[in-house]
Design brief:
Ribosomal Protein S5, domain 2; alpha+beta; about 140 residues; 5 strands; five-stranded mixed sheet
Length: about 140
């Protein structure tokens, strides 16, 4: 039976990050800085450099670059939302590891869950707000 004491002994920290419909379950382990997303290396999973920088931003803010390995399972959303969900999960896992890191992460805005979601489509509209073209005659 896993307890908090056992988790501390293993030096393994779990957290969940969310953005739009993307959910990332992040596991943080002491290591050399490898990031594995859905059992693929980050460079293969996120091809764009901007998304890779977003994932690594919590480590740069806290000064813990190349000190932890990340293993994450990501479901839902698009690539940008998934990267931001992983970023949110890493930030929360770092706080679980060391509560003193909360202030720099909070100042950088990495702990705020971006709760914006797609607006639903309404009846009589083409999209959420787009209307059919008006014809006067």
């Amino acid at each position: 039976m896993a307890t908090k004491a056992a988790a501390k002994a293993k030096k393994e920290f779990w957290a969940t990050g969310r953005r739009k419909t993307a959910i990332a379950r992040v596991r943080l382990l002491p290591g050399s800085g490898t990031v594995s997303l859905n059992e693929k290396p980050m460079e293969q999973y996120f091809g764009r450099e901007a998304l890779q920088l977003a994932v690594n931003q919590p480590f740069q803010v806290t000064g813990t670059v190349a000190k932890f390995d990340v293993a994450a399972r990501i479901d839902g959303g698009g690539t940008s939302a998934q990267a931001q969900a992983v970023q949110h999960g890493i930030s929360r896992a770092l706080i679980a590891m060391n509560p003193d890191l909360r202030k720099p992460l909070k100042m950088s805005g990495l702990l705020t869950r971006d709760s914006r979601e797609k607006e639903r489509r309404k009846v009589g509209r083409r999209k959420a707000r787009k209307r059919p073209q008006y014809s006067k005659r």
